[in-house]
Amino acid sequence: MTRLDGDPGTSVRDLPGLAAQLAVVLPLVHEVDPEEAEAIVPSYRPYYIERDLRPPAWTTQPPMWERAIEISTGPAPAAPSRFIHRDYHPGNTIWSDGRLVGIVDWTSASWGPPPIDIAHMRTNLANVVGLGAADVFLAAYRSIDGGFDFDPFWDIRAVLDFIGDLDVENASLERLEALVARAVAEHG
After folding, report:
1. Which of 23, 63, 105, 157 is most exposed, with the fewest beta carbons within 10 Å of its own?
2. 2, part of any domain
């Protein structure tokens, strides 16, 4: 962050512009040379593998969370393995004069499914701004990737990764719960 001029992308004044720029660079990340990436980064795995998954204590919808856990611990939808950021969200981007100039914090980079980067961004946008922001980002990504077919499985997996790190006092839990509820309903 000290090598680039700019500030973290934590402001969401122009959501469509922000989403478009966040979306357009992601395929570039996923196109990193596989021979180099696969040799230097670990394989993807969910963060919650070490956790005892159960519905959050604050929820009023335990059955929905139980279904989400069941879905997320089942087989993942088919996705190619690529270089992934693994912690892609606005706070890990650098902006200058309204332009995205860099992506930072590569400590979680992995070799795995690109949809987890999309879902991680969606989870963060839903948490900070709301479900509409997550949908705007997905629409922007689809517009540059020819109608990418996003499986709601990845939203569930990203929220379950994210939920254990939330400060219950400060998080917008109802926004995350709404994202999970919709993903569970869409998944079936």
Report:
1. 63
2. no
